[in-house]
Design brief:
Phosphofructokinase_CS (chains A, B, C, D); PKF_sf (chains A, B, C, D); cytoplasm (chains A, B, C, D); 40% helix; 2 domains; EC 2.7.1.90 (chains A, B, C, D); homotetramer; metal-binding (chains A, B, C, D)
Chain lengths: 342, 342, 342, 342
């Protein structure tokens, strides 16, 4: 068989480990050939390829990012996109595709499979918000990076009697905030899944100062205050109507400073959460995902994605993984609340 | 309620996080009081206690080790041990115990529960070999430490065209070797669960040198060669009949040097695998274990231990967790074998 | 002797290591007593003290921040400040002070010494911009944190064919940018010491994309473009006339995106550069600074600060260390330029 | 010019950073050409080369080891070695050599320069024991790795009330032990420069247990007890007369266990101290060494080696760097002694 591999969406530690496992097992155990498509679905759409064999995957296990490049190109939004993909796959002699990506990338994979393309999906989202799998790779790395930052910030907060607001990734799901906040001993954790009361947050912060320790507030970038609490003046909106001055973290720090009378500072972790070498958890998970994906391709079990269930890596229908966002359930949030304000 | 807490067996990153979660939730949510027992079962046996409240658990989340100390004392091997424990618990006014430990510590907990002591167990083993739970805390930290060491050793191996044998923890179960080896891109992984053929290992090593890369061999301390391969001269045994010169790692390096004609060196990671600050995974897991344990105590649900099943922390009968060792199943080992020798 | 210790200014990894060394040697070698003053000069000003002995300094060597707290209080800006300090020192029976801090803190120390207070200074600035010492502690830690962030960002930049602008600390001196940029393999490094031509930076960035690698631009927070290049609309200034929308990093990313036609993103490292456990270099340097400072106090050699010269820790007059800012000399910048744009 | 580059002796973090800086500046600033010689002096001796240009040095800055390979081959110990080297250099059209290595490698460089070969040396020793330079690269990385190990071991030592003996590199000079011991808060530090009294060490250890903390003893592999304290039975020597059972660390742990009545364990850090990605200090130092070395070559300033003096990278005669070992001066050791036993 000749098999194409592509990676789509935001980069994520573990992508290279998946590619390596797919190719290593595909070549050595099954004798398949591979071709890399560059930059997500843009690769098969425009016929952009890259050699992909044992030599190309040497040494990439510990490396972040993706040797294939990535993009957010969606062939279904391009005139004749599907036909071009089919033509390019045919020209390259590609019998099957391994598509590694998040909801968008796997959504395309699902539709292409319905249209007769042989696809196996590997779920990827640093936010851990894909249904059908217990965890996605990259998440553990992001949580560790955020936790290490929080560890560092504790000493600064306490030396200066300041509140430190740490804004982490998570537009729609608060997994990174929840886990990094628990692991880092945050005083409050705020998630997109639940609007927060800025007065309550200020109360927690004040309580923490009373025991002579300074608070760390972890806030997901998509968290929102209760309706009406964020009153914007005109000049705080940009021409698209977005809040101008930084994100929710900065807004919250300003509010807390005002309400508690204690200095507050914001740190926005941003892109450092998604780059660099994966943790052991993510390397093992992405390697096992890759091995299971190439097994599925080899067996002709298409239209599936690989998934973690407990300690097992299994296959589930592609459609199951991409239908709905996996958000933080209320009981997991309440479990954490016992630490708030103490 | 007045609740005693103890930690037994080898230390493990995450012990302090469990203690903190138990106390924080016990005090703030339920209003319980706590007393720390020192040095495992030795504490209740000899009446060695330590104050344990909100103040004592501040700042211990990221710290390795255990603020309560540990030991391997077994009260059932001591004349009148159980009676002494019961007397000391009564004297301290202790209504229930949270026992954090491995097979031995929880084995004692199980028997004491049968004898009427109110106990809830929290499983702890860095080796990840306790039944009934998907993972134990400390394991992820150990695997990451071993992986980082392997990452470092790759460059040395290649610069000097040497084989590097890395001996990791695991007397009876090879989980650390398997995960660290997968995560570190080991050339061969050797586990206690399966005797290895030193000739086969030498073949893998030789094959690796042929592609111009130097091999890393990861070996669990309890791994053994095929019967008859380790022929010992008298002077290689100490007075107890144990192998003198280092462990299996050193023996293997000598064998590989002889059989492949390439220099080989050994690194024994030893105690650095079990100390220091826990990873995010271990901090979250141990915190959730602690929260579930105090809930069980509060509800009077004794004779249980907490356990991870998928993404849920649940309770199972103590007896289920400690009966049998959880070793690496053959299919997990075969999954990894595709990387050997390449 | 009874000796007061205080830490002033921004926190910095190594402060606790200095305190520990001062107290450990002062007590065990010389038999002195200590009292901690809280929150910089605010402590002696308001008589805020803290016990400080062997017990208090146990275990603080690896901890970031300062157990004494810090502030930017300047007693010379407060009516009767100096008299209050003298009165409080007398009341506490303090014979001498060890003042650990940057230009402001040591400036106060210098003036107090002229007014008859027995002071020895320990230089502290994460920016490494104090004259009279080769390095200050905290700087090496900050550079390593920034370098690790840059390491992570390389893979993201390349996977997405994006420019990544990393804004690091350094308002007036670009030492962190220079060292982190060199260590992280930055494509361009921009310092406060030298205005940059945004067109030239865009040329470097474009050149880098041509060799199929994505650029990392490291910019000190105090770096400025050539006069006239940053044309500000009114609404981009806040009420103090400062640029509103983020710092120089965000401005630069927007400019580069426009000029190069490639996506650009900014990461502002902020407070994570100054918190957390010190590197070995900083632990050794701050320990040696502390030992030399207590020797100076013991010998009555006041009005001095400790300093690193080559591999020696020596004493210099306080006035020499605080007179002028140590900026990056042009030849060090030119040394780095060979890497720009390649 | 056509310039050869080689790396000799034990590998060391920063070697690749030197190679990269030499080639990057040599090509882009001066237009020189390069050829890599493989495996130290073995390369020019046997004519083993490797292409070396901008493409080959991309991405190697953060990588440990050496892309050129290394060996301990000494051409002066080989019949006709010098003539072979001269012939191979002529055949390759090589005008000058950059030799990166320790005492042995630079010793050969010195002699070859006397025989008319154009050589510039770059000093390399992880042990920091080369004269003529304040620091060598790789040392800071090794010290940080050892310090992190010690940080981890503290918690284990205290949880189990055990002594932990950490054996670090340093056969003839104790720089790594001294700096890692100071940075890690060791209870005792033992160096090759000064024989130790095992009774005194036991006293320190005992004292530490009395304050309820467990001791870490850091011992350089080349440290030795006072004459007569290590009484060996015949069977403890191997056929070369070397001590068989592990190194000095294990011997010391056994002695301390016996003399103090407290369990003692040994960790031998071994090869993990020399592999992996360099710290920022080492990346900056090795980059600056490389830049200065290529400048020297370009200017025809042969027979020199580069060196760090304070914050400057300078050139000194090769002979000055390699004559004598730079050991730890007694006053640096005494500076550290204040922490022993406390």
């Amino acid at each position: 068989m000749r098999i194409g591999v592509l990676t789509g969406g935001g980069d994520c530690p573990g992508l290279n480990a998946v590619i390596r496992a797919v190719v290593r097992k595909g070549v050595t155990a099954y004798g398949h050939e591979f071709v890399g498509f560059r930059d997500g679905w843009k690769g098969p759409l425009e016929g952009l390829t890259k050699p992909l064999g044992i030599a190309e995957v040497r040494g990439i296990l510990p490396r972040g990012g993706t040797i294939l490049g990535s993009s957010r190109t969606n062939p279904f939004k391009i005139e004749g996109g599907v036909e071009k993909i089919k033509a390019n796959l045919a020209e390259q002699g590609v019998d099957a595709l391994v598509a590694i990506g998040g909801e968008d990338t796997l959504g395309v994979a699902t539709k292409l499979h319905d249209l007769g393309v042989n696809v196996v999906g590997v779920p990827k989202t640093i936010d851990n918000d894909l249904n059908g799998t217990d965890y996605t790779f990259g998440f553990d790395t992001a949580v560790n990076i955020a936790m290490e930052a929080i560890d560092r910030l504790h000493t600064t907060a306490e030396s200066h009697h300041r509140t430190l607001v740490v804004e982490v990734m998570g537009r729609h799901a608060g997994w990174i905030a929840l886990h990094a906040g628990l692991a880092g001993g945050a005083n409050v954790i705020l998630l997109p899944e639940r609007q927060f009361d800025v007065e309550q947050v200020a109360t927690y912060v004040t309580k923490r100062f009373q025991v002579e320790y300074a608070p760390i507030v972890v806030v997901a970038e998509g968290a929102q205050p209760l309706d009406g609490q964020m009153v914007l003046h005109n000049q705080e909106l940009d021409s698209f109507g977005h809040v101008r001055l930084g994100g929710i973290g900065q807004w919250l720090a300003e509010q807390l400073e005002e309400k508690t009378g204690k200095e507050a500072r914001t740190v926005v972790l941003g892109h450092i959460q998604r780059g660099g070498t994966p943790t052991a958890f993510d390397r093992v998970l992405s390697t096992r995902f890759g091995l299971q994906a190439i097994d599925a391709v080899h067996e002709g079990d298409f239209g599936k994605m690989v998934a973690l269930k407990g300690t097992d890596v299994v296959r589930i229908p592609l459609i199951e993984g991409t239908g709905e966002l996996k958000t933080v359930p209320i009981e997991r949030y309440e479990e954490a609340e016992v630490f708030f304000g103490n």
